[in-house]
Amino acid sequence: MKKQKSRKGTVTIRDVARESGFAASTVSIVLNNAPLARYIPPTTKARIQKTAKGLGYHPNIFAKSLRSKRNHTVGVILFDITDPYCTLILRGIEKSLYQESYLSILCDAHNERARFERYLEMMLERRVEGLLVLANWLYLDINVLADLERGKIPTVIIGRELESSATSSVTVDDEGGAYSAVAHLYSLGHRKIAFVRGPKALSSSKARWRGVQRFARDSRLDLDPKLVVDLPDQINLNAGVDDAFRITEELLKQKKSFTALMAYDDMTAFGALRALTKAGIKVPQECSIIGFDDVNPSHLMVPALTTVRQPMDAMGASAVSILLDGISSAAENRTVSAIHRKLPAELVIRETTQSIS
Amino acid sequence: MKKQKSRKGTVTIRDVARESGFAASTVSIVLNNAPLARYIPPTTKARIQKTAKGLGYHPNIFAKSLRSKRNHTVGVILFDITDPYCTLILRGIEKSLYQESYLSILCDAHNERARFERYLEMMLERRVEGLLVLANWLYLDINVLADLERGKIPTVIIGRELESSATSSVTVDDEGGAYSAVAHLYSLGHRKIAFVRGPKALSSSKARWRGVQRFARDSRLDLDPKLVVDLPDQINLNAGVDDAFRITEELLKQKKSFTALMAYDDMTAFGALRALTKAGIKVPQECSIIGFDDVNPSHLMVPALTTVRQPMDAMGASAVSILLDGISSAAENRTVSAIHRKLPAELVIRETTQSIS
DNA sequence: TCCCGAAGTTCGATTTAAATG
DNA sequence: GCATTTAAATCGAACTTCGGG
Fold first, then answer.
1. Is the distance from CB of A159 to CB of A311 less than 8 angstroms?
2. Quick check: B124 and A58 CB within 8 A?
3. Which nucleotide comes closest to A62 if you measure CA to C1'?
4. pLDDT tens for each residue of A215-259
5. CB of B279 within 8 Å of any CB in chain A?
6. Looking at the domain B13-59, which fold is it?
7. What is the pLDDT of residues A36-50, one digit of tens each?
8. Does B88 touch chain A (CB under 8 A)?
């Protein structure tokens, strides 16, 4: 009754033990190459390994995790998987995780607070070893942050500056990127430039605008307040394109002429492009457009969008490396302070910008 | 020594037991509302629940899974997360999974066989309860399928017809969709239609072409072989756009005139649009274009792409429902035969098609 | 003491069988 | 027999300790 053949399809360490004629502990020691395995003769090892393979033995990960408290899994929470921005960062994350044999649980919060909290709860229950939060397009406020820190597990936020926080972060240099974007337009001869800024509530909106202002100061470029508009504060991604469309149309209506338009991001640029095209204004011949992000569809557009690329791949990789460091530190009971990494953006010149002729 | 206060931050069922003055088993029964809880007086229940909450008790999921062999997790393998097609299906999957409180482990195979197999192995080791495979753009052959079936866990493939297989599948009605696409062009007066077909190795290429042929027969539309070209057999997604671009240029070079172009999918349509634009041909005024999929960037294009929409959301939901059925059947040792669901596609008329004038 | 291997405990929760009044 | 509660076995692997040659 005790020596019953394994009735279910799963083969346990005891099956291997019985089949090989050794004790379960020996099998464990051999298969894990534990320190004690040093004393076990090669013949025994070979026999055990052979029967293990023969039986198709795979250690039960639950039992393993129960003891070790580790599961080689990290949680990834993002706020809209439909956003191509997320997609590219996910790719970067995945690559790094794969190398370390970590798997990830993916949660899509749909930009909803409740969903975010529910997912956070679920991942904590599952005791993921760390958390990656993709805070694109999100109005991350104190509460969410508090939730995160309540979890007490290593966490890295991507896409949102959190200098003050105890939670690590990885961001782009929004200010520098915006600076180089205006600089590009300026170098093409553009002086009357319209700006569609991002929602005020987003920190990246402010940072990008600072970049613009800094360039304006540096080069004595005149920023006409009439040519500066803001995207409304909302969180629907696709509506963002529509808003940009609407706002650009209004900009056009008031007859304030401009020869170039700098959009908050690529999505905004798409909306603007549509508005300009509808108004019969040719891009780039009559008006240049530049975006920000270099999101997937940007290079597919006709004309292809000139933009400022966020190094999404590198951001994902960087976040993972910080996270895994945090995890191993936590495992060894060392404490580490939060790390805030800011990566440079890169100007990508394509077809929507052209020198003034 | 045995009654030591829990030294770590984690609070176990025994902590709750000690604190409430009952045995661990009683606590378990109450908290899980097990059958035996019927006999337990409300006062006891209340006391236990209160202390559990007070202590912030969360059952250890590893221990739970160790016994129950369930973990409320499914694996999702896709072949290129960069593909917007995947993205929308993921959203559909996520929605349904969320409702059932399932979490998903996401794996991106990068269109590489080795990666696919490694991930499959990892998920099997983790004993995910089921598997969802997003077989877009993949040259799924017998081997991969065999791998999948070797796993012996419920599996649903999305985007690939597998009528013969023991593995369930969810697909679109490619043939019907293509039929309605040509029908749309035909109804606008187009008779000289060019076709950029998909790679021969993909079953959806064949199915879509069958739809075209069927319409041609039904309406006595002449299909000029000179206007039919194929995308090469390769698996790089972005190269697909470039290939389409190149192929359309060749089509143009040979001076065979056409008034409309039907692309294998949206990505192909983007490539074609670029080629036509470069050649100075106005879309849709001089040439209409229709795609397939209704992938995310399609509605952002200027002009917005007319296409045939795959009901990605519904496909994801459908796959999840089949999968969860499979999982509960497996849990109860019932056997179910594979289910093959085919969902209708929907014509979405936007700006790249126009009646011949 | 060295070598080889086994027995037993632990992780945390569930569930059975059994013990109280 | 009934209501109420619990000790003990179990899940599978890892690790510590122990014993025989």
1. no
2. yes
3. D12
4. 999 999 999 999 999 999 876 666 778 999 999 999 999 888 999
5. no
6. 434 Repressor (Amino-terminal Domain) (1.10.260)
7. 888 888 899 999 999
8. yes
